[in-house]
Amino acid sequence: MFQAVKFVPARSNEAPTGCLTNVPKGKVPCPRCGKPAKSVPEKTPAHLLTEKAKTQTADLSGFYFCKTPACNVVYFRGDKVFEQKDVSVTVGCKKGAAPATVCYCFGWTKEKIAEQLERTGKTDALDDIRAKMKDPGCSCVTLNPSGSCCLGDVAAVIITAPGNYLHH
Ligand SMILES: [Zn+2]
After folding, report:
1. Centroid of ligand 1 to alpha carbon of 58 (angstroms)
2. Dihedral of the CA atoms 96, 82, 143, 168 (nearest 10)?
């Protein structure tokens, strides 16, 4: 029987030329919880790891951020793992984090959003963050442990907040 053979181009593992960020693409499973984790720019652990933690590795590129609440891994690269104790800010998405910061650039926490929702039935978190992203601008890469924009996380916090009586 005839079988069609699909042509599959050879893939290179090398980063495309001109890539300045040195951030691996795609998600990699966390070595402890097994959930897919996103890569972070080198700048993120460089800013957020404690000085002591930074002495453990000369190269801070190629790390991934685990956002699983119950997992104590914050950053990993292969077998190298950094936990909350190695990070200079409280990682808001982790279980028991206080304050549970979601927007590090403009100081929005789960507590503040829940309080607004409980008191007024709504929150201006997203409008406030969007306005400030335009002016003065945000610094998620260096302030947010995930190294990326917080808007999706903030929206998730609003939708799941106990004081949210709005139906989305
Ligand atoms: Zn994990």
Report:
1. 23
2. -50
